[in-house]
Amino acid sequence: MKEQRNGLLLVISGPSGVGKGTLVNALMERNQKIKMSVSATTRAPRPGEIEGVHYFFKTEEEFKAMVDRGEFLEYIHVFGSKYYGTPRSFVEQQLENGYDVILEIDVQGAMKVKQAFPDAVLMFITAPSMSEIKSRLIGRGTETMEQVEKRFATAFEEIKMIPQYDYVIINDVVDVAVHHMEAILEAERCRTSRSNYLSESIEDTGR
């Protein structure tokens, strides 16, 4: 009997500067059956952005209607203006097609997804130490020291949420961190709770 499995919903969070994007890109390059989730937003498309590829672009009225219908796994209202959210239908369709889906979101969004989708696998990405996080923030050279200090203070609060996650990944060496992520995904696929096809096969055989 051919094994039939849905994909995994992988939620990734962590402080700014720990290399979440680098790890996600490397993981996707090495695994063709992993996709990034596509968010919905009320902001206007930027040059080169494609509907359904980069974002699902919505009016504020359309977005609020989706909220009222419970169509988001999570959503946020940024700076009192634009909305961003994760459409449940897109994620569920990809999972049913056998793709693993990645959500790279903040800790507040991750907790909302955990509540709405208990089967999700939550990974927290961090650096080997707080001092390393600060060094990486400074090393990016894209922000003032005041902005760096603000992000560093936020990192302290985010670190406190680690016990709410299933796994923590220390991003010291990228290849090692990606290997750990792959090992987690493989172990999660082997969970008995995700192996309904086996019990169905046994039932069919016993009839």
Write the layout of secondary structure elements.
Elements: E1 9-13, H1 20-30, E2 34-36, E3 39-41, E4 55-57, H2 60-68, E5 72-78, E6 82-87, H3 88-96, E7 100-104, H4 107-116, E8 121-126, H5 130-140, H6 145-159, E9 167-170, H7 174-189, H8 196-206
Parallel strand pairs: 1-7, 1-8, 2-7, 3-4, 8-9
Antiparallel strand pairs: 3-6, 5-6
CATH top level label of the domain at 9-37 and 100-206: Alpha Beta
Structure classification: alpha/beta
Instruction: Classify the fold: give the CATH topology of the domain at 9-37 and 100-206.
Output: Rossmann fold
User: Tell me, what's the shape?
Assistant: globular
Distance, first to last CA = 16 Å
Which percent band covers the strand fraction? 15-25%
Order of strands, widest sheet: 2-7-1-8-9
Rg, alpha carbons: 19 Å
Order of helices and strands: EHEEEHEEHEHEHHEHH
- Counting DSSP E segments of at least 2 residues, the number of strands comes to 9
Helix share of residues? 40-55%
Largest β sheet strand count, sense and barrel closure: 5 strands, parallel
The named CATH superfamily of the domain at 9-37 and 100-206: P-loop containing nucleotide triphosphate hydrolases
Average pLDDT, to the nearest integer? 92
Secondary structure tally, helices: 8
